[in-house]
Fold this protein.
Amino acid sequence: MNLESEFSYSGQKTEQSESKTLKTAETIDEFPEGPVLVVLGSGWRAEQELGLNIDSKARVLAAGELFQEGGIAGIVFTGGKLAGENRNSLAYDLWSYCHRKFPDIEGKSILLEKESKDTSEDAEFVKEKILDRERPVILLTSEFHLSRAQKLFEKFNVDVTAGVAAERILKGKSPHYQAFFNKHEKSLKMKSERIKEAILRGLIYIDPKGSIPRRLAHRRGKS
């Protein structure tokens, strides 16, 4: 895979319209027994038409790799209509991208949580709307985001048995991924993200279920 092309702005388009819906499972009861992989969306590029951002793509690619290794009952993608009611939900665009990259993954192995606008809502809505009973959850997001995400899912009583960083999975797959993410992690954007996450992790002690970041996310978009 040409990673510079895959993750660059040039030539990237948003996923197909959600009105041409790819099929998915209706409920988690359609999944076989086993752990559920919950993949948190990050967002799109500055202009949605340019497609998913690097973190969203990395999380999807890592999810596809993990699912193909076996042992996972199904994948839940999260993320609401952050760009407006007339645009695709983030969860749908994650699934559409996954379908293009891993066409062998069937829709019956996918569920979409299409209402959340931040990490605390990811946790709350996965617990309330997706998990019909106690199931082991593997939480997949970016490394800078993983610690806070795990804490929030635990606050909402989700049984997170493991937290997985997308970059770590992909780095283990090829030296090309390793070189790309080593460079990406040194970027100014990622330095800014790590500072933001450190602040938000600190807020958890006074705001355990993330209501402050939630209000901000509803104004500005998903993190």
